[in-house]
Design a protein that fits this description.
The complex is a heterodimer.
Chain A (H helix, E strand, L loop, with lengths): L2 H4 L15 H5 L4 H29 L10 H37 L7 H23 L13 H5 L4 H28 L12 H33 L12 H34 L7 H14 L15 H29 L8 H24 L1 H7 L3 H31 L5 H27 L14 H31 L30 E3 L20 E3 L3
Antiparallel strand pairs in A: 1-2
Chain B lengths: L8 H32 L13 H29 L11 E8 L2 E5 L5 E3 L1 E5 L3 E8 L4 E5 L4 E5 L5 E6 L4 E7 L12 E6 L1 H9 L7 H11 L3 H4 L17 E3 L5 E3 L2 H9 L22 H12 L8
Parallel strand pairs in B: 1-5, 4-10
Antiparallel strand pairs in B: 1-2, 2-3, 5-8, 6-7, 6-9, 9-10, 11-12
Helix pairs in contact in B: 1-2, 4-7
Classes of the chains: A mainly alpha, B alpha+beta.
Chain lengths: 552, 307
């Protein structure tokens, strides 16, 4: 045990005991508590979005419309998309694990702007309420993409409310991004140089850059939608000389980088889990860092691959196709490096490790099917079919959601101070992997066969694939609900977590579980890179300290 | 399974199988390595472990980075060159006009025959589709032909195919377009040429698209200015289609379908050099269907040549 922990004052309260009233939570500027506020909010939105999809998948069991009408169906999948993208996936890892862990990994007391952090949560809730209100008022039927001129001139639903909701939540993203960037630049512990940062910090940093640069474009395009729909400004309406394709360019200029907002944090989480659970330094640390930076930069230059059949010029399509193949390279490097990290390790099959390994497999498949869609002639056939649906769910659900669950389990003891049943959690991880493949793999096949997305009624030859997918969704639903029970049990009856149950070398574990209000009793000093696991001859439990407490 | 019923389909499937083979190999490699390493190096196993020499890690890293980069470039090149022919419509292609609206497909043959949510075409003949929408964005998708093209309001987009197998194939709208999006479907009926010839004879007496366009040209009053004996100074439209037109603000524009369409609904947009922008807009007066007729008329040999 390090000196810092031994010397601590055992009577001081941890961050959870630091105030227990509702008011103390709602006015907190503690990054850890804000992380928990976000976790509560996104959990609510996650299950709301999942419920909408449960309705859709139930209806798709038969080719005809039986449970709901066409309009209800369109509102259900739109709700699913809007909620899952902006109210779950984009904020998921950064605002919960990121908020909680970033200052601790940097070895500091809080983020650079603690009050801005709280404001971002209120913006998130404000945007969420607007969107919920749109839902209660009758829903939105534009799809999460808000394509014009349908959204501006033809839709009879609450487009304005929903667009404003997403507009507001965008500012919450920007606030979080600014906060993370400033914190990483300014608040690193003594000795924590850029090339000693844990990959999770790099992931948060690159994600924040993308958030800050891309989100304003989304805000602007949504304002243009509002301007045309509410005030009749001719922007996208071709009858007045507008251009409907302009919206798609603006929208994907945000929404393609948004895919990286959703998946870069997952890279960070998985890198932390795999190194710790395999007791191994990350293979090719520098390449992992550069890969994330390159992905964040090139991610801005590939938006046109969403528009190969839109009427965009053939030359533009070729350039976007080329860049989309190029961005596959850093992603592939990451997969190989995670695999290489296992080599000569001490692999432990904990639940979080199972989630992380599942992530690598599903992300690989999701990434490779991206190559199909980057090929122009093949994309012409596959775009707007279930193939695309399956592809991006492999990245965002198989990838990001697996990583989120992995991270949740991995840091659970630190966040709550309690242990959970490892066996029940392993069962959840394995069910998620199989349930996910069962749900989404059939969608690749029916997509190639020509099943378009966003179809309520469909030709009967696709029924067997839809039935498989819906049955898989039941398994997947179970895998999502199951952790509520054992994690809930852990909160109430779980045994107390030790300070560093996984034997991690990372800074956030070198304090009590749960951490005190100011994270560390003494600010740490760092004198080596991350992941100093497994020196020659070491036993798995041995951890080489990469930092020492600062002497007074 | 999905039929391959166009000249394009088997070539797309080749590309697909190449990518499936390659991806399959990579997935197998990654999964085998993950499972292999996880088992061999599970905690407590006696497998030999140790620090990797730094140079080895770096060389492996550079090696696979380069390898992946070359594979990516190769795949781009292969995919990009697979279907360049798709960008060039054969000269002798039969032309079918498509007007999409919420939630139906209207299709018009050159001989004036109209169809709703169905398209009859002969096997082995290239067919060029010239498409526009009356309202929102739709997408013309025929899985059996492996073609898809968005259909935009205020704009002509085109695609082409050549069917190779008689049969009936799905026509689907692939771009979400509102309430009945999933019911905006139809059938493409590919017929042997003789059958098609018989089918297309059954035209009604309204005449070909060009003939209907000629009548419309009179009725809408186009002849008042564009006729040969008109007093108002407006360019004659005889043989205008496909010509390079000098513009008032400098430069040239080819008088293609898009240009003719825009000149009818937004005449002030590109005015031919030497003329005043006096033409009123026909937006709302001439429907998208009417404009197709007018263009068909202007494309015919004696189109625009009237008093």
């Amino acid at each position: 045990m390090s000196e810092g922990i031994a010397a601590r004052d055992l009577t001081r309260p941890d961050y959870l005991q630091y105030g227990t009233t509702v008011r103390s939570w709602l006015t907190t500027t503690d990054h850890k508590r804000i992380g928990i506020l976000y976790a509560v909010a996104i959990t609510f939105f996650f299950f709301l979005g999942a419920a909408a999809m449960a309705l859709v998948r139930a209806d798709l069991v038969t080719p005809s419309a039986d449970l709901i009408t066409n309009d209800q169906y369109n509102r259900a999948f739109t709700l699913h998309g809007i909620i899952m993208v902006w109210f779950f996936l984009v904020p998921s890892i950064p605002t919960t694990l990121g908020n909680f862990l970033l200052p601790m990994m940097l070895g500091t007391k809080d983020l650079a702007f603690p009050r801005l952090n709280l404001l971002s949560w209120y913006l998130f809730i404000g945007g969420g309420l607007l969107t919920l209100f749109a839902l209660l008022a009758g829903g939105v039927d534009t799809g999460w993409t808000f394509y014009t001129p349908f959204s501006t001139l033809y839709s009879n639903s609450h487009v304005l409310l929903a667009a404003l909701g997403v507009f507001v939540v965008g500012f919450s993203s920007i606030a979080t991004g600014v906060n993370f960037i400033a914190s990483t630049h300014l608040l690193r512990a003594k000795g924590l140089t850029w090339m000693r940062l844990p990959l999770f910090v790099w992931a948060m940093y690159t994600t924040s850059l993308v958030m800050v640069l891309a989100t304003p474009v989304l805000s602007m395009s949504l304002l243009l939608v509002v301007a045309e729909r509410a005030f009749g400004l001719p922007i996208f309406d071709p009858r007045s000389g507008g251009d409907p394709l302009l919206f798609q360019h603006l929208f994907w200029f945000y929404s393609h980088p948004a895919v990286y907002i959703m998946v870069l944090p997952a890279f960070g989480v998985v890198s932390e889990i795999i190194t710790c659970e395999a007791r191994r330094r990350i293979f090719g640390y520098q390449f992992m860092v550069y890969a994330m930076v390159v992905i964040a930069v090139i991610g801005f230059m590939v938006w046109g691959h969403h528009m190969f059949v839109s009427g965009q010029s053939a030359f533009a399509s070729m350039v976007f196709s080329f860049l989309s193949f190029v961005i596959a390279v850093p992603s592939a490097i990451k997969v190989f490096n995670w695999t290489g990290t296992l080599y000569r390790g001490q692999v432990r099959f904990s639940a979080s490790m199972l989630y992380a390994l599942g992530f690598v497999g599903l992300f690989t498949l999701g990434g490779l099917t991206g190559l199909f869609l980057a090929s122009v002639p093949l994309d012409v056939h596959l775009t707007d079919t279930y193939f695309v649906v399956a592809h991006f769910h492999y990245i965002m659900v198989g990838g990001s959601v697996s990583a989120f669950f992995g991270g949740l389990h991995f840091w659970w003891p630190k966040i709550t101070g309690r242990m959970y049943s490892e066996r029940l959690a392993q069962f959840a991880a394995v069910s998620m992997f199989f349930g996910f493949n069962f749900t989404f793999f059939p969608q690749f096949v029916m997509g190639y066969m020509g099943m378009p997305r966003r179809y309520h009624v469909y030709p009967p030859e696709f029924q067997p694939w839809h039935v498989m997918s819906s049955v898989g969704a039941v398994v997947l639903g179970f895998a999502y609900l199951w952790p509520i029970f054992y994690l809930g049990w852990s909160l109430v009856k779980g045994e107390k977590a030790p300070d560093n149950p996984h034997g991690s070398t990372s800074l956030e574990w070198q304090t009590t579980s749960p951490p005190p209000r100011e994270n560390f009793d003494r600010l740490p000093v760092v004198d080596a890179g991350p992941y100093k696991y497994h020196p020659w001859h070491s036993t798995p439990d041995e951890v080489e300290q990469s930092h020492r407490p600062q002497l007074p | 399974m999905l039929p391959d019923a166009s000249t394009l389909a088997p070539r797309i499937d080749h590309l697909l199988w190449l990518l499936i083979g390659l991806s399959g190999a990579i997935v197998l490699l990654v999964v085998a390595l993950i499972i292999g390493f996880s088992i061999k190096y599970r905690r407590g196993s006696t497998a030999k472990r140790g620090q990797l020499p730094g140079w080895l890690a770096r060389d492996v890293e550079i090696g696979w980075t380069a390898a992946i980069f070359f594979v990516a470039i190769f795949l781009f090149w292969f995919a990009a060159t697979t279907e360049t022919s798709q960008y060039e419509v054969p000269k002798d292609a039969m032309e079918v006009h498509v007007v999409a609206k919420q939630w139906m497909w209207k299709l018009e043959h050159p001989n004036g025959r109209r169809e709703i949510n169905a398209l009859h075409i002969p096997v082995g003949v290239p067919v060029r589709l010239v498409m526009t929408s009356q309202d929102v964005i739709h997408s013309f998708f025929v899985p059996a032909f492996r073609i898809k093209q968005d259909v935009l309001p205020g704009r002509y987009t085109e695609t082409w195919f050549q069917a190779t197998r008689p049969g009936t194939y799905h026509l689907l709208c692939a771009e979400y377009c509102g309430t009945d999006h999933s019911q905006m479907t139809g059938g493409i009926v590919v017929m042997p040429r003789a059958d098609y010839a018989r089918w297309s004879e059954g035209t009604d007496d309204t005449g070909t698209l060009a003939q209907q366009g000629a009548r419309l040209f009179q009725r809408l009053g186009c002849t008042g200015c564009h006729g040969n004996s008109a007093r108002v100074r407006a360019p004659s439209l005889n043989g205008v289609y496909g010509r390079m037109q000098p513009m008032n603000d400098g430069g040239f524009r080819r008088a293609d379908e898009q240009y003719l369409h825009d000149s009818i609904v937004r005449p002030q947009k590109d005015v031919v050099a030497g003329y005043q922008p006096v033409m009123p807009s026909y937006q709302g007066i001439a429907s998208e269907g009417d404009i197709i007729l007018l263009i068909a008329y202007l494309k015919s040999p004696d189109g625009g040549d009237v008093q």
